[in-house]
Amino acid sequence: QQQVKQSPQSLIVQKGGISIINCAYENTAFDYFPWYQQFPGKGPALLIAIRPDVSEKKEGRFTISFNKSAKQFSLHIMDSQPGDSATYFCAAAYGGATNKLIFGTGTLLAVQP
Amino acid sequence: EPEVTQTPSHQVTQMGQEVILRCVPISNHLYFYWYRQILGQKVEFLVSFYNNEISEKSEIFDDQFSVERPDGSNFTLKIRSTKLEDSAMYFCASSELGDTVYGYTFGSGTRLTVV
Question: Which of A13, B14, B61, B100 could form a disulfide with A17 if both were Cys (CB 3.0 to 4.6 A apart)?
C-alpha cells in the first residue's frame, strides 16, 4: 500500500515532443505528490508538486495531471529539450511530522536533438 | 541558492568497517533526512530527524545505522559494520518545516562502495 508505481522505465522523445510519465498509488492517505528530476551524480531536485484537491498544475513546460478517483497522476513535459534528459521520479507523501517521501522507480528520459 | 552539502562524495570501505557520512543541511532548516539509492533503483527513505531525535525510520534503518547532529550544523549517518549490500548512494535532505509543501532540498549524495 505504500508503493508508488511508475512507468515507463525509460522514454525516448524527439526534441519538441511531449514526454509523458505516469504514476499510480494505492494509499488514499497520500496528500502530496511531487515530481523530482535527477541528473547523473546529483541529488533529486523538486520539479513540480500537486495536492489532491486540484486536477492539474502547470509550471512552464511542466504539467502534472491528477486523477484522484483513479489514483493516478502524470507528468507532461511539453516542447521537450535535450537539457530535459534526466531521470524523473514521482513521489508521494502524507501528513505528519516526518513527511517521508515514497518514491516511484524512476523514468530515464532521453530527448534526442 | 542555499545547498545541502555532503561529504565525502565517494567513500570506499572494507566490509565490517564503520563509516560516517556527513551532511551540512541548510542553516534555517529544522527537519533532516537520509535516503539511499541502490544503483539503478528507486530512492528509499531511511530516517527523519527533528528536534534532536529520530521522528521515523524505515525497516532498512536497523541497529547498524545511527544518526546524530553533533553540533549546530552537521548531520551524520553512521553505519557501524558495513555489508556489501550497503553499497549505494546516500542522500541527505533537509526541509524548513515539516510540511512537504515546501519540499525538500537534497544534497548531491555520497557514493558508498563496500568491498
Answer: A13
